[in-house]
């Protein structure tokens, strides 16, 4: 007996989901416009952005797999092993504070770390808050407060001098160093300015690493395999 009728037609299913998401996007747009002078209007604008992102995921057939485990469980290490490259920073002491997307793409020749404008402005705001704090209370007090994280004390004078944050960083070493600095800046912020959550901002896009990955050579088979995205997450303490 043929079971073909039980097999979903992926292309049709994809189109159905895309048109449904388009309708939801329209509804969110209308709601945010109607409520433009109401505080909830912003909330619907946020929902609309989420739906637009979700639609893009379905268009690209993106499968997102988040790696979630307690702190120091080996999340970043296992992602490096899956990707086959030592691309995410890991160490014996607490490391990941910024969720990071690793987008595996067969059309990429080299890994590249991409930071969107809102991510950069958010991190720059965090940096200037920390600089202000160090200026007001002095370098010594900042270093003393960081006693629990001795490996981060050398970052304090660097924060004081200022960091340049680029939107695209290539090469394994450059990516790893940039991610180490950015993750550590967020951790320093949680110690020196615990009331500020650098990630709790509207539309904070997480850093993305686009990196090469093998793909089956059978074009017919792989046409609808889509892209795998792995998300490294900060482990709860
Ligand atoms: N022996 C052993 N060590 C491991 C294994 N996996 C990871 N490690 C080590 O454990 C430490 C923590 O690994 P990470 O990958 O940074 O762990 P994480 O879960 O990403 O940590 P956070 O980002 O701080 O939450 C590192 O020193 C790794 O080298 C493993 O399977 N065996
Ligand atoms: Mg980690």
UniProtKB/TrEMBL annotation:
InterPro entries: Dynamin_N (IPR045063), P-loop_NTPase (IPR027417). Keywords: Coiled coil. Residues 66-235 form the Dynamin N-terminal domain. Residues 10-64 form a coiled coil. It comes from the Bacteria. This is Dynamin N-terminal domain-containing protein. It comes from Limnospira platensis NIES-46.
């Amino acid at each position: 007996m043929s079971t073909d009728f039980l097999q979903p037609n992926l292309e049709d299913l994809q189109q159905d989901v895309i048109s449904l998401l388009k309708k939801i996007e329209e509804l969110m747009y209308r709601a945010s416009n109607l409520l433009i002078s109401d505080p909830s209007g912003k909330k619907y604008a946020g929902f609309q952005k989420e739906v637009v992102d979700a639609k893009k995921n379905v268009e690209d057939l993106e499968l997102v797999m988040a790696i979630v485990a307690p702190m120091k469980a080996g999340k970043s290490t296992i992602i490096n092993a899956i990707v086959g490259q030592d691309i995410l920073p890991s160490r014996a002491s607490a490391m990941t504070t910024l969720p990071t997307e690793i987008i595996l793409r067969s059309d990429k020749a080299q890994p590249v770390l991409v930071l969107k404008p809102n991510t950069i402005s958010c991190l720059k705001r965090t940096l200037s808050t920390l600089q202000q704090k160090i200026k007001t209370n002095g370098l010594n007090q900042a270093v003393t407060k960081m006693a629990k994280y001795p490996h981060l004390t050398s970052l304090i004078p660097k924060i004081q001098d200022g960091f340049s944050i680029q939107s695209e960083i290539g090469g394994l070493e450059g990516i790893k160093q940039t991610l180490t600095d950015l993750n550590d800046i967020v951790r320093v912020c949680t110690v020196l300015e615990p009331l500020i959550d650098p990630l709790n901002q509207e539309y904070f896009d997480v850093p993305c690493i686009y990196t090469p990955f093998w793909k089956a050579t059978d074009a017919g088979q792989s046409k609808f395999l889509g892209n795998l995205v792995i998300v490294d997450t900060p482990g709860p303490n």
